Amino acid sequence: MAEHGFCIAGTHSGCGKTTVALGIMAALVKRGYKVQPFKVGPDFIDPGHHRRITGRDSHNLDGWMIGLEYSRQIFYRYAASADVAVVEGVMGLYDGFSGTNESGSTSEMAKALELPVILVVDARSMARSAAALTLGFQVFDPGLSFAGVIFNMVGSNTHARYLREAVEHSLPGVTVLGCLERNEGVVTRSRHLGLVTDEDNPFTPERIVALVEWIEEGVDLEVILEKSGIQVEFTAKYPQAMPNTIGEQRVPIGIARDQAFCFYYAENLRLLEQAGAQLVEFSPLKDQELPKGLKGIILGGGYPELYAEELVRNSILREQIRDFSLRSGPVYAECGGFMFLGESIKDLEGREHTMAGIFPVKAVMEHSLRSLGYREVVTLSDSPLGPKGTISRGHEFHYSHMYGTPKDPILTAAYAVGSRKGGQGFKEGFIRQNTLGSYVHLHWGSNPEIPRNFVKYCREVDVET
To answer: Is the pLDDT of residue 240 over 90?
Structure first.
């Protein structure tokens, strides 16, 4: 079991907590520690960077999507084989599903895992006021354990001295764990869905060295380790190994993975394997044909709009996916994968790119955010995910919309989506034969029956590539 664990939280999105978290992970790895990363919330992009830095899959923890008990299971399963567990928070420390309670927040998860919090504060244009800001975060929830504060975006040594003096004078119980100077060379670039993905902008060895140097110059890692001993003992209740209960032959299921399709929860893939799937990765951008013998296909989210020209050029594989779907092969697609299954994608320059054409709709990119938030969905008919009425939770975040919602009898709506405020919900996504596509990214930890249903469905349907 990891001897050390802590949660890196921020005052708000954009304060630099991801860069700080990555830097601390990299510095610990350099010192020889096995670092197990985690991410609070539904984010796909940060875990990819975590994996690049640590060499270990990062796992999402979410009090609303999958619940605290399931999150604990994930945490202890993977922390068991590490020296240090590092949990990166989401948004601001207390931000979550609601403005009135802690559900889905970093603070809720830190308490559930009994981990101390390191607060990252963007200290630009602040001196003594930074102490007042830190105090507010410290006292807002007395049940939270604070390891200390790291001031980011510090302008100079003099600025750092003012910040330390302000905390030492006004907050004697708070430890300043570091002051990090502005360094544009270590910042990860952003685009419309957040940070640029690891697939598109990997941390090179040179960037990792710069990141480590930045942390070692500004953060006291020894004090962080001293303040982050894990008190909870690992038990057999949270086994690390996956139970080997599959007696039948494994079912080959294709997983689209490349720069265009890269949004997958590691736990979803683990659950598929546990249910008897053999995961076979392929690239809709580069592979000339589908892998042989597939019994099902999963198309995750990502950025198909940025690679639309390459997807258009790879017409043979696109047609093979369409043919597999129209022969009743089970296909499950989320967000970017859903867009790919439509007739076309219109990019921000107004250019229209032909896609698989399984759903008679067109995806149109917008400059502004079209939808964001947690979702609970209920299937409206039997599908590869399970019988009618199957419930799951997930998240929606996209800049496109579907144009020309069809009244075609070959389609049915996939989900009824409940309103966050308890009012009337709406319908979302489509089902055509055994193909289900939706904008919602589901976390199957909210209903582990879904991956079992999907694998069973793929096993029983008489179709393959």
So the answer is: no
